[in-house]
Specification:
Blueprint lengths: L13 E2 L4 H10 L4 H4 L2 H37 L6 H8 L2 H30 L8 H18 L1 H31 L22 H16 L4 H5 L6 H30 L19 H8 L5 H33 L17 H20 L1 H10 L3 H22 L16 H15 L3 H5 L3 H8 L1 H16 L20 E2 L1 H5 L1
Parallel strand pairs: 1-2
Helix pairs in contact: 1-7, 1-10, 3-8, 3-10, 3-15, 3-16, 4-5, 4-15, 5-6, 5-12, 5-13, 5-15, 5-19, 6-7, 6-12, 6-13, 7-10, 7-11, 7-12, 11-12, 12-13, 13-14, 15-16
Keywords: Amino-acid transport, Membrane, Transmembrane, Transmembrane helix, Transport
Membrane topology: Multi-pass membrane protein
Subcellular location: Membrane
């Protein structure tokens, strides 16, 4: 699609309404969800307590490097659409086209999945009410939040993230009390770290398999880059949010894995539970019950419902902005780039909501089709991370090649070039290792299901490259201007008035 002028189809402007506290809390709470509350136990069961900690520490380092890479680009050039636009500017328009649609698909599918999960969770309290009623309610709620204003999204995420953060902090306090014997009877200490085959179970292959679990748990950290385009002070907000990433990973994931591993041996069958319909088997619930909290299951059910709604809400925001960015870059119909007077890309919002609703309905028409759509987005997040690492590598090299001074950058990644290279290599390993057993057994159906998002991405990339004959942009021709292709912004003070 040919690029189009923005002024001929935009009557409103993007509002920079997200404050530092919004971005910081979005960054803090962005990855806290079912991956931490439920599937963290599987990591311990698979690789043992030591193996799980190693896997999460390594993956946490990678995510931190990715965030510093994204932070450098986002503070220099805060764009709605973030890393897709960076891939277009710094590498190849074909890559930006494929990354944008890949990321949009990821969240467009995730939204109905989270809505379905919310219905399952609500049935814990109200089993006689059909799940679809709760799911539709969640879809309507997140649409309303995103329709009102970007600030309503920011405020909602702020408080939802706060609930999750408080839960994790309380869990860590209770867990430490149990480990020391202050609560729950005798002190358990760290005996489970040398129980049977612990601390390392299954060796290196098991640790690599946990990379997948950890990686999916960390999905969503890149949302900070998406929000940069609507941040009131991106050069301050984004950098603060990036710095908080390290402490988030350390406290919320590493410490949580450590506490669970101390209290529950890796042989505990409850650790293998991954089903939100059986919240009583969540590691969090078991630990709270051991501390004497009788209503642990209900509390954790409410917290996980909060996490699911937060994920769906962020998914609608991210996919809407990505579709808007695709239109602004000329990769989608231009009316998706229209902004209403409230600063909302309204047609991008409606279009994304419609697609997500149709995907949700496929489970009633053909459950197998619904499952294939879910699998189609399986590796989309890792592909986006590959793009972020690649874009930063090219951005920094182009910046220096054009004779610019690194001291002029408002935020600079301290780990270049190691950071983006390490992130790229690890993401590539995770993608390739998604289902190695399927290749060993030549199980083509499982290969297709596991890797479906990869050929979809390649088809998008090759289609655009062949049709428009694009090429990798030479370093001295990379566009480092801060042009936002016609995007106009309303300052937060103006919007407040």
């Amino acid at each position: 699609m040919a690029e189009t002028s923005q002024s001929d189809h935009s009557t409103g402007h993007i509002h920079r309404s997200l404050r530092t506290r919004h971005l910081s809390m979005i960054a803090l709470g962005g990855t806290i969800g079912t991956g931490l509350f439920i599937t963290s136990g599987e990591a311990i069961s698979t690789a043992g307590p030591g193996g799980a900690l190693v896997a999460y520490i390594v993956m946490g380092m990678m995510v931190y490097f990715l965030m510093t890479s994204l932070g450098e680009m986002a503070t220099y050039m805060p764009l709605t659409g973030s890393f897709s636009a960076y891939a277009t500017k710094f590498i190849d328009p074909a890559l930006g086209f494929a990354m944008g649609w890949n990321y949009w698909l990821n969240w467009a599918v995730t939204i109905p999945v989270e809505a379905t999960t919310a219905g399952i969770i609500m049935n814990y309290w109200l089993p006689s009410v059909p799940q679809w009623i709760f799911s539709v309610t969640v879809l309507a709620l997140i649409f309303l939040i995103n329709y009102l204003s970007v600030r309503s999204y920011g405020e909602t995420e702020y408080w939802l993230a706060l609930v999750k953060i408080v839960t994790v902090v309380v869990f860590l306090i209770v867990g430490v009390a149990i480990i020391l014997g202050i609560m729950g009877g005798h002190a358990v200490g760290v005996s489970n770290f040398h129980y049977k085959k612990a601390p390392f179970v299954g060796g290196v292959p098991a640790i690599i398999s946990v990379f997948l679990i950890a990686g999916f748990s960390f999905q969503g950290t890149e949302l900070v880059g998406i929000t940069a385009g609507e941040a009131a002070t991106p050069e301050v907000s984004v950098s603060k949010a990036i710095h908080s990433t390290f402490w988030r990973i350390l406290i919320f994931y590493i410490c949580t894995i450590f506490v669970i591993a101390c209290i529950l041996p890796y042989t505990d069958k409850n650790l293998l539970n991954q089903n939100v319909s059986n919240i009583t088997m969540s590691p969090f619930t078991i630990v709270f019950k051991r501390a004497g909290l009788a209503i642990a299951a209900s509390v954790m059910n409410a917290v996980i419902l909060t996490a699911v709604v937060s994920s769906a809400n962020s998914g609608l925001y991210a996919s809407t902005r990505m579709l808007f960015s695709q239109a602004r870059e000329g990769y989608a119909w231009r009316f998706f780039g229209y902004i209403n007077k409230q600063g909302i890309p309204i047609y991008a919002l409606l279009g994304t909501m419609l697609v997500s609703a149709l995907i949700y309905l496929t489970q009633f028409i053909g459950p197998q089709a619904y499952n294939y759509l879910i699998n189609a987005s399986g590796l989309c997040g890792f592909i986006a991370w590959l793009g972020i690492a690649s874009s930063h590598w090219r951005f920094r090299r182009a910046y220096l090649a054009q004779g610019r001074d690194l001291n002029d950058l408002k935020y600079r990644s301290s780990f270049f070039p190691f950071g983006p290279i390490f992130a790229f290599v690890l993401c590539f390993i995770v993608i390739c290792g998604q289902n190695v057993d399927a290749f060993i057994k030549w199980d083509w159906q499982n290969i297709l299901i596991s890797y479906m998002s990869v050929p979809i991405f390649l088809v998008l990339f090759i289609y655009y490259k062949v049709r428009y004959r694009t090429h990798i942009i030479p370093l001295d021709q990379v566009d480092l201007s801060r042009s936002t292709k016609g995007e106009k912004y309303v300052a937060p003070d103006d919007e407040d008035k």
